[in-house]
Write a structure and sequence with these properties.
48% of the residues lie in helices and 15% in strands. The radius of gyration is 15 Å and the shape is globular. The protein has a single domain, classed as P-loop containing nucleotide triphosphate hydrolases (Rossmann fold, 3-Layer(aba) Sandwich), CATH 3.40.50. Helix 1 crosses helix 7. The chain has 161 residues and is α/β, with parallel strands linked by helices.
Amino acid sequence: MVVILFGVAGAGKTVIGRMLAAELGWEFYDADEFHPAANIEKMRRGIPLADADRWPWLERLSELISTCVEQGRDAVLACSALKESYRRRLKISDEVELVYLKGGYTLIAARLRERQGHFMNPELLRSQFDTLEEPTSGALVVDVAQSPAEVVRAIRGALQL
């Protein structure tokens, strides 16, 4: 199984993803590590990515997910996947579970102000919320106002992991 944790920057995808993968003994992947250098530089400069920037990145992630599923390797992937079309591209089989880490703008903005050493420019948060297409079905929704441990517990319980 591959669990994809998605949401805006600062929702806790990496922290929660690492915790979940460690508890389960699964592999963890951070989708940020699959961005080409040009995308990272754009985000560092505060320039929102366009779909044309994201599609090659999503293709690389889809290939990773396919490999995990084909080889029977369980994994957790932290990925923004802000649009429904992106999530459809990544949900390649029933072996992929989508988990939306939902948080309000005020909470997420406060978290981003405290974050150190990440390339994501906090000024891009508004564009992320503008781009975000919240799931209406097909995804587990978890409130990130809880502690990371509580979020992991909620995910494990809902997905019976």
